[in-house]
Write a structure and sequence with these properties.
By secondary structure, this protein is mostly helical. Helices cover about 35% and strands about 5% of the residues. The protein has a domain of about 400 residues. The chain has a three-stranded antiparallel beta sheet. It has a three-stranded antiparallel beta sheet with strand order 6-7-8. Strands 1-9 form a two-stranded parallel ribbon. It is elongated, with a radius of gyration of 39 Å.
């Protein structure tokens, strides 16, 4: 079959140019038998349509996202991370008598994690800018990813599978504090259900040597409350803890069965959803979990460890530290990142490739060195359920991040995060039974074993032009920082030149290629190039010198023009008319050597000196010699011997001529 017959046998395409066959984009070649398929061409078009999304059916809250401000030039800068209790937790060392109670309650391993970490504010901000409230995932350039139940269990050693962390709130918490903590806080330290963490530190930091078991239990409850309010589930103030958790700590055995990992993940999701809104300047939540997750999976902001810690074992020979503990070592750089590093993080995330993401960092060898609590409940790591923490309800969608579980990622179905839940909080609800209020979500959590997502094993990377990535690039916000698309206006100018070339070649081929499919493909090519050209013009910085008509940019030189040499003000006198010299005189002038100035001289500068004195009118001499003005000497080019000189003709009357030589000017008076 000839090339012409093959082109005519191609399937017809709609006006929108959509064809779903094939996973590759054929390079445009009029002589080949393959016309570029329309969906792949449209995918290339979409990659140039600004930051995205092209299809707003998924990210329908884009206008409220903080990335809009950044793209419009109003960069709010790094978020303020409310993380005040790290120093206090490092100083508060629980007594060894408290360890058995902490282990029964499920908080011993998270205590072993340690809290001597410095939070990277620019890194937290860069991740928040990628977080989407509509999907509860981070939208990277290579797909979606998120913090999962697996990450919480493995990194922090918190239980996942168990009843939800919820209960009822009451109006008077002071008697309950006195009953289970052994002390009643004052009104200064207790406001509603918020108890100041400074009060806990003041009264329960040091366990008495002669403490009874009941006193040890009270001190253990106080430390766990401080742990919850300071690191795991902090409120907006980051300086108080909600006493809603205190009734759950009465029975340590029951407390150890609760899904504290689900509660921490729900708190993190809520903090990210709030911080990604426009006009928000701070974030408070379990930021340590987010930072550990980023270090394990992403290359951006990951510090270089100088060594790895040894695996510590308990008395029974079992590991005791969660995986996050291995980041509690010395780094190559101990300084806090400066604020301007945020732009570097943005650019790296905008340019991220799939090989820069560790989709499965928890290998079997790594999991074998973790305590049992890190692996309990792994059968619900992929359960699509609501995460519950009293008033906080956040949906968990592992179907959107199947690569993190080693499964094939398909185009996920539409999801609903129930935006009304994000507006719900405890304000004005001092007495409320949250179990009854969220009965539907509690029931869905209880049936979590029935909602586990399954899939096919995945052992390779996703094709760039596969179905998922083609769909994802159309629905996502690909670029956060405007400065990443082009390094300078010169790059835009060069790109415009290539686009114009595409337009010209495409228009020429459009008139010479006779098949219907070829005409349609070339018409799409020309239309695409015109759209690129307009978009590139819009990306030029304000008042950019390259923002000029296109025909001027095409003939403009690559480098900047040489600045013009400053010249003296022109004299109002004109040179005398001279007779053209003979060829021999030209040769004699070359033998005389170059003139003093390298600048190209006017023809009148090559005048040979002559013994004939030029008669000049008085007006011309007075104008050429104003008082106090120094005149530029003329060239002293000697004429070789034996060469006849042509006499200069006298100028016409009332015509200005060049001034006399320096020698003659000294002999003549200044005023005639």
């Amino acid at each position: 079959m000839s090339g012409e017959e093959e082109r005519s046998s191609l399937p017809e395409r709609s006006s929108g140019g959509v064809e779903e066959s094939g996973n590759r984009v054929a390079a445009f070649n009029p002589d080949s038998s393959c016309v570029p398929s329309s969906p792949r061409v449209m995918d290339a078009i979409g990659s140039m349509h600004g930051p995205g999304p092209i299809d707003k059916q998924v990210l329908h809250l884009q206008d409220q996202h903080r990335s809009v401000e950044i793209w419009d030039g109003y960069d709010p800068g790094p978020l303020t991370c409310r993380h005040r209790q790290s120093t206090a937790l490092r100083r508060w060392a629980p007594h060894p008598r408290m360890f058995p109670y902490m282990s029964r309650a499920g908080f011993y391993h998270v205590y072993r994690l340690g809290f001597g970490f410095k939070i990277d504010w620019p890194l937290m901000t860069a991740l928040v800018e990628r977080w989407r409230q509509e999907t509860h995932t981070f939208h990277l350039s290579i797909g979606e990813t998120t913090v999962t139940l697996q990450d919480v269990a493995v990194l922090m050693g918190l239980r996942i599978d168990g009843p939800p962390v919820t209960g009822a709130s009451i109006s008077n918490w002071a008697p309950l504090c006195e009953q289970y903590l052994g002390a009643r806080p004052s009104k200064e330290h207790l406001r509603g259900s918020s108890l100041k963490l400074t009060w806990l530190r003041k009264h329960f930091m040091v366990l008495p040597d002669d403490a009874t078991d009941e006193v040890v239990e009270r001190y253990t409850r106080a430390y766990i409350l401080f742990l919850i309010g300071g690191q795991l589930c902090p409120d907006k103030s980051a300086s108080s803890v909600q006493l809603l958790y205190l009734p759950l700590l009465v029975d340590f055995d029951y407390c150890g069965t609760l899904s504290w990992g689900g509660a921490v993940l729900a708190t993190l999701y809520r903090a990210l959803c709030r911080a990604c809104q426009r006009g928000v300047h701070e974030i408070c939540g379990p930021l340590l979990l987010l930072q550990l997750w980023s270090w394990e999976r992403l290359h951006v902001g990951r510090p270089t460890r100088l060594h790895l810690p040894e695996v510590e074992l308990d008395n029974d020979g079992a590991p005791v530290d969660p995986l996050g503990r291995r980041w509690r070592v010395r780094f190559s750089n101990q300084k806090n990142p400066v604020p301007h590093i945020l732009q570097i993080y943005r650019e790296k995330l905008d340019q991220q490739t799939e090989d820069q993401v560790i989709w499965q960092p928890y290998t079997p060898n790594v999991l074998a060195e973790l305590p049992a609590i890190c692996l309990d409940g792994q059968h619900i790591w992929r359960a699509e359920v609501p995460l519950i923490c009293f008033d906080i309800i956040e949906w968990y969608f592992p179907r959107r991040v199947m690569r993190q579980f080693g499964l094939v990622q398909l185009i996920p179905p539409g999801v609903d995060t129930e935006l009304a839940l994000h507006k719900q909080d405890r304000r004005g609800k001092r007495t409320l039974d949250w179990v009854a209020r969220h009965a539907r979500y509690v029931e869905l959590w209880q049936r979590r074993h029935e909602s586990v997502v399954v899939g096919q094993p995945w052992d390779t990377h996703l094709h760039h032009h596969g179905d998922y990535m083609t769909w994802f690039r159309r629905i996502t916000r690909r670029i956060i920082s405007r400065g990443m698309q082009f390094q300078s206006s010169g790059d835009i100018r060069n790109t415009l030149q290539h686009v114009v070339w595409i337009c010209e070649r495409g228009s020429f081929a459009l008139g010479s290629w006779g098949t219907e499919g070829g005409r349609e493909a070339l018409a799409n090519l020309v239309s695409t190039a015109n759209q690129w050209q307009q978009m590139l013009r819009d990306l030029l910085p304000p008042n950019d010198p390259s923002e000029q008509p296109l025909q001027h940019r095409l003939v403009e030189e690559a480098g900047p023009s040489r600045p013009k040499r400053k010249t003296r003000a022109p004299c109002n006198l004109q040179r005398p008319n001279i007779v053209s010299p003979q060829p021999l005189q030209h040769q004699a002038g070359k033998e005389a050597g170059p003139s003093r100035s390298k600048k190209k001289k006017k023809p009148s500068d090559n005048l040979e000196p002559s013994n004939d004195v030029i008669q000049q009118p008085p007006v011309a001499e007075a104008a050429s010699n104003p008082p106090g003005r120094r005149k530029k000497p003329e060239s002293n080019v000697q004429q070789p011997h034996g060469v006849s000189q042509q006499p200069l003709k006298s100028p016409p009357p009332k015509e200005e001529v060049a001034g006399p030589s320096r020698q003659n000017r000294k002999k003549k008076p200044r005023n005639n």
